[in-house]
């Protein structure tokens, strides 16, 4: 910028010199030098520029531009001065055109400001162009990430359609992901078949055993001791069948084998569950109160799984409650209205701090569990909740009771 300002100043001095020379040729020296005068000097008001013309003795030609200091009204001012000698009408003259270095600095600052603005504009335009260009270049990568990774919840929902791209690396990445997902999908399919076949192979002999035990109990010659043994064997078979069915359900949920096309009213669901467990409540002398205000619709869910989720929590509240205790099934909006809360609260024995950390682990029945518990109810509940994007929060005070809260994502409600 300093060099540019200097060059610009020198060009301006040259232009003024040519202008003065044209004026002298057209009007004559008398325009500046009156009769009897040998020199002429003129400064502008701020002493930023001056023109000087004086008669000199013949000598070498002068045509230079250099920095010089001049005394102007008792003040020393630094100038950039063009000195030029010429002849006219048989006489020799020296023309000087000067401009103060202060004004040159002002020009330099202006150039710097202009350059800064241009640079900022260039950076902005370049950045926008780069962003648009890179966005165009990386669009296939974004498609691959969205279609192959982010939007895939299960191998069965994977989209194997190739992503259109002319970039070899992106094409190779897409092909690698599709190959990998084919392998994963095949593994999941093998697991599904194994679980289905294994459960069938296990349940079939158990059903046969159950049938035989029923026939044995019908034998009148069977002693009372043997009848008790048969009954115990029946209970064991029933227990095994229940465990296999529970594990099969967990596996099917994790493998996304349940459709989620229902829209369920929580008010209707809680009323149905209250009616379902009424006999069990009467046997234990328990009371259940339920209220869902306002009603809440759960979209894109599986009604059967949602029923199992809530009924498992209610069953636990019945199982670990006191004689004559209470159970509350309450639905309400969260304080920030960002969630809907369905709470199952009881007045039972509560949960110890040690048990809290492993509450949802399979086959962990806890210290207060009865012999009929399999330790799979809460594990199934958590698996169903995760499938539907529902968060479970547990609060419990040992000796006073427990509270299980289901936090549903907020959606339009009735």
Give the gist of this structure.
With 414 residues, this protein is α+β, with helices and mostly antiparallel strands. The protein has helices at residues 2-27, 101-150, 168-217, 224-254, 266-276, 278-284, 303-319, 353-356, 377-387, and strands at residues 39-43, 49-56, 63-71, 76-88, 91-100, 262-265, 287-292, 297-301, 326-333, 339-346, 391-397, 401-409.
Structure, described:
This protein is of the alpha+beta class and 414 residues long. Helices cover 50% and strands 22% of the residues. A hairpin with a 3-residue loop joins β11 (391-397) and β12 (401-409). The longest helix has 50 residues, at 101-150. The protein is rod-shaped. It starts with a helix and ends in a 5-residue tail after the last strand. The mean pLDDT is 82.
Distance between the termini: 70 Å
Counted beta strands:
12
Low-confidence stretches: none
Strands of the biggest beta sheet: in what spatial order?
1-2-5-4-3
On the 0 to 100 scale, the average pLDDT is 82
């Amino acid at each position: 910028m300093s060099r540019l300002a200097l060059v610009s100043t020198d060009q301006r001095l040259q232009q003024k010199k040519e202008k003065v020379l044209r004026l002298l040729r057209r009007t004559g020296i008398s325009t500046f030098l009156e009769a009897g005068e040998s020199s002429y000097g003129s400064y502008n008001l701020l002493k930023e520029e001056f023109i000087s013309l004086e008669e000199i003795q013949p000598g070498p030609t002068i045509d230079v531009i250099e920095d010089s200091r001049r005394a102007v009204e008792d003040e020393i001012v630094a100038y950039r001065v063009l000195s030029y000698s010429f002849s006219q009408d048989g006489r020799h003259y020296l023309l000087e055109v000067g401009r103060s270095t202060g004004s040159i600095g002002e020009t330099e600052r202006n150039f710097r400001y202009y350059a800064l603005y241009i640079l900022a504009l260039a950076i902005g335009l370049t950045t926008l162009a780069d962003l648009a260009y890179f966005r165009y270049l990386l669009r296939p990568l974004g498609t691959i990430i969205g279609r192959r990774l982010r939007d895939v919840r299960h191998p069965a929902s994977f989209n194997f359609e190739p992503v259109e791209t002319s970039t070899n690396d992106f094409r190779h990445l897409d092909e690698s992901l599709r190959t990998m997902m084919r392998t994963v999908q095949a593994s999941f399919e093998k697991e599904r078949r194994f679980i289905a076949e294994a459960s069938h192979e296990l349940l079939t002999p158990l059903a046969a055993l159950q049938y035989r035990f029923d026939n044995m109990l019908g034998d009148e010659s069977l002693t009372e001791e043997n009848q008790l043994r048969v009954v115990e064997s029946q209970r064991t078979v029933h227990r095994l069948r229940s465990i296999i069915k529970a594990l099969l359900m967990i596996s099917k949920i994790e493998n996304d084998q349940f459709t989620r096309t229902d829209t369920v009213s929580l008010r209707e669901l809680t009323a149905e569950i209250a009616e379902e467990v009424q006999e069990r409540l009467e046997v234990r002398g328990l009371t259940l109160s339920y209220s869902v205000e306002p009603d809440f619709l759960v979209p894109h869910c599986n009604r059967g799984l949602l029923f199992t989720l809530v009924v498992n929590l209610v069953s636990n509240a019945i199982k670990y409650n006191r004689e004559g205790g209470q159970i509350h099934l309450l639905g309400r909006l969260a304080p920030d209205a960002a969630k809907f809360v369905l709470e199952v609260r009881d007045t039972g024995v509560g949960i110890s701090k040690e048990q809290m950390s492993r509450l949802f682990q399979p086959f962990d029945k806890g210290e207060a569990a009865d012999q009929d518990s399999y330790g799979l109810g809460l594990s199934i509940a958590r698996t169903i909740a995760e499938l539907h994007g529902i968060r479970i929060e547990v609060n419990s005070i040992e000796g006073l009771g427990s509270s299980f809260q289901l936090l549903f994502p907020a959606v339009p409600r009735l």
